Amino acid sequence: MKRAVLLTLLLTAGLHANPFFSKSALQYEAPPFNRIKDGDFAPALEEGMERQLAEIEKITANPEPPTFANTIEALERSGELLTRVSKVFYNLTRSNTNAALQKVEQLEGPKLAAHSDAITLDPKLFARVKALYDTHAEAAPNAEANRLIERYYRNFVRSGALLSEEEKNKLRALNQEETKLNTDYRAKLLADTAASAVVVDKVEELAGLSASDIAAAAQEAKDRGLTGKWVLALQNTTQQPQLGSLANRALRTRLYEASVQRGNRGGENDVKAIVARYAQLRAERAKLMGYPTYAALSLADEMATPEKALELMKELAAPATAKAREEAARIQKMIDADGGGFQLGPQDWAYYAGRVQHAEYDVDESQVRPYFELDRVLRDGVFFAAHELYGLSFKERRDLPAYHSDVRVFEVFDADGKSLALYYGDYFARSNKEGGAWMDSFVDQSALLGTRPVVVNVCNFQKPAGNQPALLSFDDVTTIFHEFGHALHGILSNVRYPTFTGVNVPRDFGEVPSQFNEHWELHPTVLAHYAKHYRTGAPMPKDLVEKLKKASTFNVGYATTEYLASALLDMAWHTLPADAPQQDPVLFEKNALKKYGIDLPVVPPRYHTMYFSHIWGSSYAAGYYAYLWSDVIDEDAWAWFQEHGGLTRANGQRFRETVLSRGGTLDAAEMYRAFRGGDPTLDPLLRAKGFK
């Protein structure tokens, strides 16, 4: 009766118009963005939590003995409204945020953390899950169901179900605190990144940038209300794209310093205290859960252990840094030959590395960009490779609403012509968008729920001014192939249970589909199909193609070293014991890089601690090593493709059936063996990076 009265009040308050309160009528339940308002989120989140708690209460109050159907499947079906609104809300807070959404996140974040704890720390619910776990051989109708029972039991235990009530209260407090840290960190870093953009007074200072880059800088200044100025906005990484072209060393230095000081400049947006507390809090949680470090807790169900991850990173650190030093010596020779009169600094690397690359390989970005127009890369490159491998085709859907005018929507069709999924592409940078690139979903595939995938890729490519074409760098092309690999993992999911859908795999296996997909950008058939001049349509000249391929391993020492520096830094933060004092982030970082022998002044970490958002406020804490771990596997998979004929439908279908469609239904190592016929080896990776 109480709930009926509450619903009546909600309806009479006008909440019946909230688009989240019922399933979307659009294809595959795609979000009706044309009807969603900022004010819809808080009521929908609140109601979603209440509805799910009522569903949980129904499960625990069931007088029947626990069964797979009345407990595990019931849990899989619960939280429909909360899932629907959360998926939209958290994508928008990262990709298209505003003050209203940030306020909702501040208010609702702690409630959502408490809501999660109310479920995972419910003793009656855990008792039902445990009863099934203790007898799961008999309780589970099939192997996938058996794995799901094990997953639920593990998740409850990792969430504190076996703790005493006093310990549960401590855990609840830690979870609440971390939720607030997440919200504060992301808001402060976004604000400081925007505020750190470099303002340029004279166009002459921008010598080296292309006309389109200068126009984009002018447009950025105009958007900020700055007349007669140019603004270089910052991306999330340490190195900034413009550093590869700017001839003015003073401006390069300003831009580099602005980048590395993000979150570390004092004032209201300084995040040093936040990250120091993050590390301490996570160590305290790990100890509460019976683990020596947060890394040990976080990696308990990954393919790697902290020890194995560190072993792999340290094994590559020596050849990577040696290669980087060789590259630095070549660059210094170029500086000296130019009469530069200065020692190579990190702000100089990209600029002079490009000149060395041009001298040694006769290729530079200005030559290749005209052949990498975004729409052609997407349609004739990324989509084409997916068609050749998996039989997919794509149709743009301008009738479906999106959350921003830049976002494009495509319907995905399978080889038999049947509609399969929806794909959203949000490619251009905005001041209210987090840096980097990622894949997410608005709706996950699940046979149990009868849902099809609705996935999104978010990137931060520079938006051209006016009607100019969007010309990508080679790194941008790699990014779009990479992120679409994640999208394929969601699009091709074919599982029954939401817990196992798409990308819900161990983190250090989750980068395999994305990094594997990068290989197709330089495959001769694929490259010839999309690398055409944006004005003439002429294919990229064969000699330029060959130069590009030869130069593809250029600067690999730098790239590997900057990555390893960040990955080792992540692991250093998350192997701190609970009794360690709170750290000074600047000093801790300096000591950690020195400890692992990767403290090269001219090769800074890809992310310094303060703006390392992968591990603070995101899901990669103690997991940034996963890119390298996955790289071992994806290079091994690529070697298998080369051994078996390369770009064929048969090969693609095998990869689809054994890996991309399986989600988390199998152990990741077992899944890969089913594809490869054995375990991956390190040799293909060493050869690919030129270390062997």
Essential attributes:
single chain; 692 residues; mainly alpha; 5-stranded mixed sheet; two-stranded antiparallel ribbon
Task: Give a short summary of the structure.
With 692 residues, the protein is mainly α. The chain is built from 28 helices and seven strands.
What does this 3D model show about the protein?
Helix 2 packs antiparallel against helix 3 (68-77). The chain is globular and about 85 Å long. Residues 1-16 have low confidence and may be disordered. The protein has 692 residues and is mainly α. It has 28 helices and 7 strands. It has a 5-stranded mixed β-sheet with strand order 3-4-5-7-6, sandwiched between helices. Strands 1-2 form a two-stranded antiparallel sheet. The chain starts with a helix and ends with a helix. The protein has helices spanning 2-12, 41-60, 68-77, 80-95, 99-120, 123-134, 136-139, 143-158, 165-195, 211-223, 249-260, 272-288, 294-298, 306-337, 349-361, 365-368, 374-390, 474-491, 507-510, 512-518, 524-530, 542-550, 556-574, 585-595, 626-643, 649-660, 668-676, 683-688; strands spanning 198-200, 230-232, 393-396, 408-413, 419-428, 438-443, 454-461.
Main sheet overview: 5 strands, mixed
- In helices, the fraction of residues equals 40-55%
How many runs of DSSP E, i.e. beta strands? Answer: 7
| Overall morphology | globular
Write the layout of secondary structure elements.
Blueprint: H1 2-12, H2 41-60, H3 68-77, H4 80-95, H5 99-120, H6 123-134, H7 136-139, H8 143-158, H9 165-195, E1 198-200, H10 211-223, E2 230-232, H11 249-260, H12 272-288, H13 294-298, H14 306-337, H15 349-361, H16 365-368, H17 374-390, E3 393-396, E4 408-413, E5 419-428, E6 438-443, E7 454-461, H18 474-491, H19 507-510, H20 512-518, H21 524-530, H22 542-550, H23 556-574, H24 585-595, H25 626-643, H26 649-660, H27 668-676, H28 683-688
Parallel strand pairs: 5-7
Antiparallel strand pairs: 1-2, 3-4, 4-5, 6-7
Helix pairs in contact: 2-3, 2-4, 2-5, 5-9, 6-8, 9-12, 14-15, 14-23, 17-18, 17-21, 18-20, 20-25, 23-24, 26-27
